[in-house]
Structure formats: C-alpha cells, structure tokens
Amino acid sequence: MTLQELREKDVIQMQSGENLGRVDDVVFDEKTACLQAVVLRGRGHLFGLLGYDEDLVIPWAALQTIGADVIMVAADPPPARGSAAKPYNFCKR
Questions:
Q1: Chain segment 57-83, per-residue pLDDT in tens
Q2: In this entry, which stretches build a coiled coil (predicted)?
Q3: Residues with Cβ < 8 Å from 82, sequence gap 6 or more?
Q4: Ranges under pLDDT 50 in the chain
Q5: What's the pLDDT score for residue 46?
Q6: What is the pLDDT of residue 91?
Q7: Which three-class secondary structure string do you get for 55-67?
Q8: Which of 17, 56, 80, 81 is the most exposed place for a label (fewest CB within 10 A)?
C-alpha cells in the first residue's frame, strides 16, 4: 500500500465511530525504517482561511484494520494533538 492510498481513506475511531479525518503523513524511525505513527491534518476552519486545528498523531499500533475505504483505530482516550503527542516506536523485529 502506498502513502497516496492511505491518504484516500477516512480514519474512524472504533469505540465512538467518530471520523477523525484522513492520513496526511507518516512518521518513521530513520535508523530502523519502522513506521511509528500516522499524522492526520487538523481540521480547517472556513476552508482553512481561519486556520487549522493541531495535527492528530496516531501510533501505528493503534491501527486495527486498513480496509477498502476506511482505517479503523482503537484509541481510548483519543490520541494527543500537535506538540502534546508522544513519540512512538512500534517496530517489532
């Protein structure tokens, strides 16, 4: 699967059914080349003219299923946004 294919899918929180947005970027460890997290762009206000909310960082391990149209995540409580987000390392070798 490519990053572009990931970006076309809605990310849904399994517990609440909330649509968290779409994948904008991925985070990986440059030393091990392991994926650590996906980044969802903050929601825009008035089409982005009034700015955006902080980005949402979801650990790769929280992704439960990547389906044809959606990505299901298990995250309770909801993941931190922006600078409050913790770095993750979920590479299992």
A1: 888 889 999 999 999 998 664 555 554
A2: none
A3: 42, 54, 55, 57
A4: 77, 83-84, 87-93
A5: 80
A6: 45
A7: CEEEEHHHEEEEC
A8: 17
Count of residues in the chain: 93
22 closest CA partner among 50, 3, 45: 3
From the CB of residue 41, how many other CB atoms can be counted at a distance below 10 Å?
Answer: 17
Count CA within 13 A, CB hemisphere, residue 78. 14
pLDDT of residue 88: 44
Whole-structure pTM over 0.90, yes or no?
no
Nearest to 38 by CA among 77, 76, 5: 5
Spatial distance between the Cα atoms of 71 and 68, rounded to a whole number of angstroms: 8
Domains with residue ranges and CATH for the chain: 3-81 (2.30.30.240)
Find tokens 């392991």 and name the residue.
34
